[in-house]
């Protein structure tokens, strides 16, 4: 029986950590070889890490990546290895090395370079122009890189038409909620349309604002899922591919005899010999390994945990500090931080003011006890009075307004940064997407922080995630009173978020339409929302772009996050909200 044992090494490599990445890669090569795999695949740009951004403009970075490739080539004995690196010829290429028995057998260059959303690959890379078919252990394998497989008339189809039985795609496909379903539908379609086995090896881990969710999968030539790795965790997924059945399926599938089909990609398909068929007798097939997909809230929560852990640890921080107000935002951030780093690395700072509800500090303390984290209490009254006294002469003829509110938020930001400087704990920012969108946040105040864990999480989802985490815990880890209290910044007597903003249940769908779907004001009003409200929300979003440009980075979990996903000018006369 024609069979291929394939290992998909879903690893968490770190941008620029060549030593660490080579170690991780060689460990996985050894494990895959020990498991009897014919072929082990690693994600797109696994050697330099993804995305390396403007490091690609430095020749020292490219050199280090090529030296790391040489080490991996030397370490590749007794197995074929397919791995992403940066190739340098007259131009740079997002490339894949095909290695066997300590030799570089061939190099594939990514053809479709994504240049939308968070991707900027045309800034650095030249597209490839050939899609060879590699004979690996007697099996015809078509290799491609991430975006290449998203086109139904792209390299996968060209390779399958040329005789490839297995389509192997190595990827660095970033997460947003629900994307995995979309991706799997596309991969399943690619398998059935080409009557080929499709193996997809994805990156896992956090890199600045992106989280790569892993979830590597294999579909057989009839579109059946035959293997799936865990989401948000490293894994070496090993599966036996029944290549014999591709031949039989093709014989029986008349669609396969598609003469004169118009393919978008007209690259040549040379045959390249990598390794001969195995000589040993056929092995018993390994049992199928299919990890079930996570449900929606659990998926988002895990993305936040992984993004936070990798940002903090990959940047060399031993701990974090969070301002605990007794509200949902800071409570959720603290819970995520504890799940990411463990309770000993997370610290809370409680900073009551004259406007804080008496119970706020109790709620914050209760949360900290539940999470097992240490807290400090520093009231801001003295500092606030000192500010007001210092400004009293200058502000003599003015009335109290948002200025005094912001001073409190700024005192808190300063105190958090003081603890950060003194103890080396990064400040975790607690702003959610609804606030970030509307600018309902104080510049240099509660906008302080090194990393914004929930900046892409709308407030209504913040509540859902708190409830999800409590369900997981089996008790009110985040006190019920925190989830049920009326949201307030507590910066003036009796303040409520709804003094300035609509209810979050109304606000969030408008923001989704305006920010994520780029709908115009008229279109949103036509959806049935109150015209004045839509205009007001659009205006708030438009005029607070300057704040977002100064805001800390944070985890993308929606199809369109603020940041490189949504590049709006700050200075603009095009204001739909007037
Ligand atoms: N285009 C532009 N480019 C650069 N800078 C620009 C600018 N437009 C204004 N600015 C500057 O920004 C300043 C205004 O921004 P800022 O000082 O932040 O103040 P502002 O946006 O006026 O007020 C902050 C609002 O956020 C609310 N808040 C604060 C803290 C926490 C929460 C919460 O619930 O979490 C809510 C607070 O109640 C208030 O309504 C201006 O005085 C000006 O200096
Ligand atoms: N009394 C406080 N003690 C400690 N930190 C505070 C306090 N008040 C505000 N903060 C910090 O400033 C952030 C902004 O909080 P604020 O209470 O203004 O509104 P919020 O966006 O509703 O947040 P939360 O739901 O966490 O209360 C908080 O998440 C918290 O990190
Ligand atoms: N790295 C890539 O080429 C990723 C592009 C791809 N369409 C994705 O989002 O998964």
UniProtKB/TrEMBL annotation:
Catalyzes the ATP-dependent amidation of deamido-NAD to form NAD. Uses L-glutamine as a nitrogen source. Belongs to the NAD synthetase family. In the C-terminal section; belongs to the NAD synthetase family. Residues 558-578 are annotated as: Disordered. It catalyses: deamido-NAD(+) + L-glutamine + ATP + H2O = L-glutamate + AMP + diphosphate + NAD(+) + H(+). Coiled coil: none annotated. It comes from the Bacteria. L-glutamine binds at residues 116, 173, 179. Its EC number is 6.3.5.1. The lineage of its organism: Bacteria, Bacillati, Chloroflexota, Dehalococcoidia, Dehalococcoidales. Pfam families: CN_hydrolase, NAD_synthase. GO terms for cellular component: cytoplasm. Pathway: Cofactor biosynthesis; NAD(+) biosynthesis; NAD(+) from deamido-NAD(+) (L-Gln route): step 1/1. Keywords: ATP-binding, Ligase, NAD, Nucleotide-binding. This is Glutamine-dependent NAD(+) synthetase. ATP binds at residues 323-330, 430.
